[in-house]
Amino acid sequence: MANREFELGGINHLALVCSDMERTVEFYTGVLGMPLIKTIELPGGRGQHFFFDCGNGDCVAFFWFPGAPDGVPGISAPPGRPDQGDITSAVGSMNHVSFSVPPERFDEYYTKLRGKGVAVSPVLNHDDSEAGVTRDLHPGVFVRSFYFTDPDGILLEFACWLREFTEADVAHRPKKASDRTLPAGV
Predict the structure, then answer these.
(1) Closest residue by Cα to residue 183 from 96, 74, 72
(2) Which domains does the chain possess?
(3) CA distance 141 to 129
(4) Per-residue model confidence as pLDDT tens digits over 81-103
(5) 73-105 burial string, b = 16+ CB within 10 Å, else e?
(6) 185 pLDDT exceeds 70?
(7) CA 89, 94, 96: angle at the middle one, nearest 5?
(8) pLDDT tens digits, residue range 139-180?
């Protein structure tokens, strides 16, 4: 399935906001091994903008703003990992960042992150069952993943596709704003 409107080459960068750039650099370079490839000091003391190479020419970038308010779990980001319950976040928020990893190294990377002291979710084998996930790896599993957070609580995922998609994989009617059910008082 090709884009017939624009020749897009993937994600140039995804820009997030951190509370401590030094700690962010330590995590993304030291724990995840992403090279820090560009640093920018914003004019007028407005902050910093740093870029990390996350593979295939794509980047994850972070802003640090001296006056940025703290995030609010459940609004600006999910309240926790998918294995811990609710993954809802607000419209316009960034729910999580998923990094593509090779299927043959998936289990190795899970063990490696745990060995670095990172709290990770159980492995999720995503399939088309009613639950959407299974403990067993079977031919219907289309992606394997696990979740963890960075020092600011940003939800991250390592995921590997296990098969090509076909037209049969696009089978659900898109929901509308009128389908939303908001809590009382919102």
Answers:
(1) 74
(2) 1-69 (3.10.180.10), 73-167 (3.30.720.110)
(3) 9
(4) 888 888 888 888 888 999 999 99
(5) eeebbbbbbbeeeebebeeeebebeebebeeee
(6) no
(7) 90
(8) 999 999 999 999 999 999 999 999 888 888 888 788 888 887
